[in-house]
């Protein structure tokens, strides 16, 4: 019979493992290389694969504050992600990442330290940051919002503060729902449009004007504006116009990976011009509508 009293003997704690700095550095280097490889693969394919490009636009519209390259990483690893944060941020909110999901992070790149190159120029290093979607946590996933902002408020937010005014005109043969008139320095919009058609047309043409005003060096103005308008519509819960997709092969033809990245950045930045202004206008107009009406002074 074994001596049961052996159970009461104190056990020696396992010896702590020495930190292997070289192994840690190699792991980080491999993770960074994997990120760059995913980005390069997406940049090479996105101009040839219409489904990949449209998927990118949808992911970029959800994560509009992320750079195009990080959105490509999100798309490659978890295209249906809805809310991302690192484990510490989730923990601060009282939410824990599921234990088995720690090995499945969404890796992105964030700026590290700057350094001086041999030629004297300044370079920017990047570090891998590991994020987790809300679906990888213990949090209860809230139902997706299906409603959208009132049409009048939405269109008012879109045109308020736009670089040029909007003028309604009677329908004309061969004219798009809305079109920028360079000579008149205005956007012409046809009468009789549905709210969705009006929004799509205005978003596209305002995007064109933003590109021209900001003097963004884009290869194809119509295509870039169409992509930006697509993202604006996605964020506004309006079915986007896909007509611009026909120009995709020509817009990306012959571009190197770096140039494709620059093209995606121009689309993102243009969409951001519109959506950030819209958000500000909606906040202001909502606040004005909620304010109590002033009563005239009694006489």
* Termini Cα gap: 105 Å
Strand order of the largest sheet: 1-3-2
- What does the main sheet amount to? 3 strands, antiparallel
What proportion strand? 5-15%
State the helix count.
9
Estimate the global geometry from the Cα principal axes. globular
Helicity, as a percent range: 40-55%
Structural class: alpha+beta
Question: What do the pLDDT scores average to?
Answer: 91
CA-based gyration radius: 26 Å
Low-confidence stretches: none
The oligomeric state is: single chain
Which sequence of SSEs, written as H and E, runs from N to C? HHHEHEEHEEEHHHH
Give an overview of the whole structure:
This protein is globular. The chain starts with 20 loop residues before the first helix and ends in a 9-residue tail after the last helix. The protein has 299 residues and is of the alpha+beta class. The chain has helices at 21-45, 50-62, 68-77, 87-92, 151-159, 195-214, 221-235, 248-252, 257-290, and strands at residues 84-85, 106-116, 122-133, 166-169, 178-181, 186-190. Helices cover 46% and strands 13% of the residues. The strands form 2 sheets. The protein has a 3-stranded antiparallel β-sheet. The protein has a 3-stranded mixed β-sheet with strand order 4-6-5, with helices on one face. It has 9 helices and 6 strands. The model has no long low-confidence stretch (mean pLDDT 91).
């Amino acid at each position: 019979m074994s001596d049961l009293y052996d159970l009461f003997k104190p056990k020696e704690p396992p010896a702590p493992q020495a930190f292997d700095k070289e192994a840690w550095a190699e792991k980080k280097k491999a993770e960074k290389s994997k990120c760059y490889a995913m980005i390069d693969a997406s940049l090479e394919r996105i101009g040839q694969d219409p489904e990949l490009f449209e998927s990118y636009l949808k992911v970029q519209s959800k994560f509009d504050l992320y750079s195009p390259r990080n959105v490509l990483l999100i798309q490659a690893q978890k295209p249906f992600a809805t809310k991302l944060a690192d484990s510490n941020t989730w923990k601060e909110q009282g939410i824990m990442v599921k234990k088995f999901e720690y090995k499945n992070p969404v890796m992105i790149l964030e700026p590290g330290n700057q350094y001086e190159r041999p030629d004297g120029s300044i370079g920017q290093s990047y570090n891998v940051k590991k994020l987790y979607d809300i679906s990888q946590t213990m949090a209860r996933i809230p139902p997706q919002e299906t409603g959208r902002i009132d049409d009048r408020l939405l269109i008012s937010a879109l045109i308020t503060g736009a670089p040029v005014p909007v003028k309604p005109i009677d329908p004309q043969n061969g004219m798009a729902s809305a079109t920028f008139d360079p000579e008149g320095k205005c956007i012409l919009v046809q009468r009789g449009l549905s709210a969705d058609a009006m929004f799509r047309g205005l978003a596209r043409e305002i995007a064109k004007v933003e590109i021209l005003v900001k003097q963004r060096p884009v290869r194809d103005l119509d295509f870039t504006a169409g992509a930006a308008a697509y993202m604006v519509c996605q964020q506004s819960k309006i079915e986007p116009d896909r007509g611009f997709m026909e120009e995709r092969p020509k817009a990306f033809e012959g571009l190197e990976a770096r140039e494709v990245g620059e093209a995606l950045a121009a689309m993102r930045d243009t969409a951001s011009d519109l959506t950030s202004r819209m958000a500000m206008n909606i906040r202001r107009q909502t606040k004005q509508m909620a304010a109590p009406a002033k009563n005239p002074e009694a006489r």
